[in-house]
Structure formats: C-alpha cells, structure tokens
UniProtKB/TrEMBL annotation:
GO cellular component: nucleus
Segments forming domain AAA+ ATPase: 62-351
InterPro entries registered for this protein in UniProt: AAA+_ATPase (IPR003593), P-loop_NTPase (IPR027417), RuvB-like (IPR027238), RuvB-like_C (IPR041048), RuvBL1/2_DNA/RNA_bd_dom (IPR042487), TIP49_P-loop (IPR010339)
Enzyme class: hydrolase
EC number(s) from the headed UniProt entry: 3.6.4.12
Similarity section: Belongs to the RuvB family.
One Gene Ontology term of the molecular function aspect: ATP binding
Taxonomy, superkingdom: Eukaryota
Catalytic activity: ATP + H2O = ADP + phosphate + H(+)
Gene3D superfamilies the UniProt entry points to: 1.10.8.60, P-loop containing nucleotide triphosphate hydrolases, RuvB-like helicase, domain II
Primary residence: nucleus
Stored SMART domains: AAA
Stated name of the protein: RuvB-like helicase
Length: 455
C-alpha cells in the first residue's frame, strides 16, 4: 500500500454566507456567551454542540448521530460549520448535502460510502530513515539518450545536504530528480529524502536566506540539527478516502484503445469494494501494531430529508460499523413524506434512524438577535451602517427571513453608493427591498395577478 505520497482529497468548504462564524463561542465551562466567535443567541443548541465536540475530541462519539432540526434560517448549517472550526484542521470534517447522492453515474450508496471514508482520519506515525538538510548543491548529470532521438536523459543527480553537524553529498536516482522538481526544490531549501522510498519532502526555506520583507509566502525553518542521515519520526494525517484514491490503480494496459476507454470512465468507479476491504485490513493491522491511530471525524449531511430509504438503510448500517465517524444531520422539515415514498415520518427521516439520533433544536431569532447578526454580517462584508439602517433591516428581517435580509445588505450598500452616501441608511434598505422581492411578497403578487403567468 502506498502511503508516502497520498494526496489529500478533503474538499474546500463552502463558506461565503457563513464567513463570520469562527467557532461555537463557548467559555472553558462550556457556557455560551450571548454573542461570541461570530455566533449570536441560540445558546442551548451551541452548548449541546459543544458537548458533542468534547465527546469527539475524547473519541467517545464515533458511531453516533446528531440531528439538528429547526425552521429555515435558524443557523443549523452555521452551527455545524462552527463545530468544524472547533475541531480544528486535524480532525476530518466532511460536509455534504443530501441531494449530492443523486447522480446518473455513481450509485447513491457509493457517494455516501465515499463521504463516510472522507470523515475517518488516520494519523500514521513512522520512524523513517531519512536524509535531511539544507540543499547546498543540486546538479543533474546528463548523458546522451541511449534510445536515440533528440535531447538528453538524466543519469543521476548530485545533491549536497548541510546540517549543523556537517555536509554530505548524495548521488540520487533520476526518479528522485523528478520529485525534486515537483516539490520545486532549490538551493537553500531544507528538504528530507526518505531512504527506502526516495520520496522528497520540502520542509521550507533555510533561515539563512530569510529576507527583509514583512509579508511573504515562504516559510523559513532553521538548519536541521544532527547528522544528515538519521531516523526521524514522521506524522502524516490521511483519511481512508485518501488511501482509497491513492491505491486505486488505473485499469487497462498501455495501448491506445485501453487508454481511450479509461478516458471515458469516470474516475470514481475505480475504487472497488475489494480495494476498500483490502485497505481496511491493512489499516486494522496498523492500528493493532500501534503505528497508526484512528481519528474519527465528522460527516455532516445537510438537507438530510433529501435522502431516500435506500440511503437511510445504508446510514443505519454504516453507523454500526467499527470504522464510523460521528454523523451530524440537519433538516428544516417537520412531519413530511420520506423522499420517494408515501410514508410520513417526523423530519422526513425513518423512525429507526431517528431513534439513533440525539436531536438538537434551533430556535427562531428575536428581533435584537437578527439585528446583531446583521451587524456582524455588515462588518464582514465591509459595509458601514448608518444609525437608522439596522432597525430598518431588523424590521424587514422580522417580516421576511434572516437569510433574505443578509442578502439584502450588498445590493442596499450598492444603492447607497449610487446615491452618493457613505453609510447605509434606512432609505437604501427600503429601496433595495422593493427592487428585490422576498419569497412572501413574490407569492402575494402571484396570488394577485397569477392569471398573467403561464401555469
Ligand atoms: N446564531 C447565529 N449567529 C450568527 N449568524 C447566524 C446565526 N444563525 C444563522 N446565522 C446566519 O444566518 C444565515 C442563515 O443561517 P443557516 O444557513 O445556518 O440556516 P439553516 O438553519 O441552515 O437554514 P436552512 O434550513 O434553510 O438550511 C447564514 O448566513 C448564517 O451564517
Ligand atoms: Mg442549512
């Protein structure tokens, strides 16, 4: 199994509407402040989420499910993102939306399975024999291509590595030269080369080359201590899905036809059940030997009422397996039909799954809370508010929805610019809300003159 060069497959998180949320805003005792870390109100739900985070950190939460329920726009998605912030980047957090499972190419359970495996992390600790140091020399040796043709091939590459103790010159294989190029290694960088696999890792640029700039992309590291050739503990965080992807071999041979066939195939189907079982086996061996440590993360399924019976049955089963993350579900549905059936069930979720869930409710916001959230949003979006803007916005928020009002901020600020004002006023807000209708106003208009539309 390859683990040296596993590429991370974790996804970029969707943020835009939730950029202001930085965490749950709880104190050391787990009590929520009225407004902290970008979150306002909703104290009970935040404290409950805080306990879940504590359980996840102490690894007692695997295989359980949390369900966030509440009316639209009461902060369910925001809360789950806050949970992911609290967990930090070392614990995998895999967000998905219920409707993602519907694809004409990939089976529903396959999508769920992939996301489950994205949410289970593995911390692999290995003592490795490495050559580490600052690069003092990097000279590829070239020779005529023995197969003829133009150009030259690299026969080997000479690398000089310096530590505090001394300098060593290594003669390395041409394939390592390729990895050196891939990592964009230059003279003056600190690198290590793994002795048995030849994998190259660039640690950063040596301190000696630090420049005077205040702001730079480069990370500077001190000159490594000890010998160039040594044993070093290397810690790598991967998810099970990373391992699946890294070990999925492209099928078919090297001839044109099979290459063409491969192009047509979606890459996702390459990961077979057999491969997964194989990886599970190796992983359990690692766990037994203590080389690796399991880090159960969070699988967040938003709009969970979009799943159908097949998916729910799969979820039930997957939750019981020994390699399970904690599953957080969110829905804004009340009593409704389970997707694709006529069965009615609370939240559109079958009762047997509901039975496994701990349910957290989010409450509607008061007018002051709406105003507070809007003030935070305005700050994040760089909009300065006049004195009368916030009450006007909150009033609209009370009539319509929090989300609509948040979205109104930017158009209103553009209107105020056009009107030559520096701060947003109540007038701009009202003007914007007349140009852009909210759902209720649009529905009311439809009732009035629905006969002019095609039905
Ligand atoms: N307590 C809060 N503090 C700060 N911002 C909040 C809070 N609750 C919600 N928001 C913000 O309000 C907007 C709507 O909330 P969110 O998307 O989380 O609602 P939701 O409960 O997921 O709704 P839906 O059921 O429609 O998915 C988001 O921009 C969110 O960041
Ligand atoms: Mg949501």
């Amino acid at each position: 199994m390859k683990i040296e060069e596993v590429q991370s497959t974790s996804r970029m998180q969707r943020i835009a509407a939730h950029t202001h949320v930085k965490g749950l805003g709880l104190n050391a005792q787990g009590v929520a402040a009225q407004s902290a870390a970008g979150l306002v109100g909703q104290e009970a739900a935040r404290e409950a989420a805080g306990i879940a985070v504590e359980l996840i950190r102490s690894k007692k939460m695997a295989g359980r499910a949390l369900l966030l329920t509440g009316a639209p726009g009461t902060g369910k998605t925001a809360l789950s993102l806050a949970v992911s912030h609290e967990l930090g980047s070392r614990v995998p957090f895999c967000p998905m939306v219920g409707s993602e499972v519907y694809s004409s190419e990939v089976k529903k359970t396959e999508v769920l399975m992939e996301n489950f495996r994205r949410a289970i992390g593995l911390r692999i600790k290995e003592m490795k024999e490495v050559y580490e140091g600052e690069v003092t020399e990097l000279t590829p040796e070239e020779a005529e291509n023995p197969l003829g043709g133009y150009g030259k091939t690299i026969t080997h590459v000479v690398v000089g590595l310096k530590t505090t103790k001394g300098t060593k010159h290594l003669k390395l294989d041409p394939s390592i030269y390729e990895s050196l190029q891939r990592e964009k290694v230059n003279v003056g960088d600190v690198i290590y080369v793994e002795a048995n696999s030849g994998a190259v890792k660039r640690v950063g640029r040596s301190d000696a080359y630090a420049t005077e700039f205040d702001l730079e992309a480069e990370e500077y590291v001190p000159l490594p201590k000890g010998d160039v050739h040594k044993k070093k503990e290397i810690v790598q965080d991967v998810t099970l899905n990373d391992l699946d992807v890294a070990n999925a071999r492209p099928q078919g041979g090297q001839d044109i036809m099979s290459l063409m066939n491969q192009m047509g195939k979606p890459k996702k189907t390459e990961i077979t059940e057999k491969l997964r079982q194989e990886i599970n086996r190796v992983v359990s061996k690692y766990l037994e030997q203590g080389i690796a440590e399991l880090v159960p993360g969070v699988l967040f399924i938003d709009e969970v009422h979009m799943l159908d019976l097949e998916c729910f049955a799969y979820l039930n089963r997957a939750l019981e397996s020994n390699l399970a993350p904690i599953v957080v579900l969110a829905t804004n549905r009340g009593m409704c039909e389970i997707h694709g059936t006529d069965f009615r069930s609370p939240h559109g979720i079958p009762v047997d799954l509901l039975d496994r869930c701990m349910i957290i409710r989010t409450q509607p916001y008061s007018l002051e809370e709406v105003a507070q959230i809007l003030a935070i949003r305005a700050q994040v979006e760089g909009i300065s508010l006049g004195d009368d803007a916030l009450p006007a916005l909150a009033e609209i928020g009370g009539r319509t929805s929090l989300r609509y009002t948040c979205q109104l901020l930017t158009p209103a600020s553009i209107l105020s610019l056009v009107n030559g004002r520096e701060k947003l006023t109540a007038e701009d807000v009202r003007e914007a809300s007349q140009i852009f209708l909210d759902a209720k106003a649009s529905a009311a208009l439809l009732l009035e003159n629905g006969d002019r539309y095609i039905t």
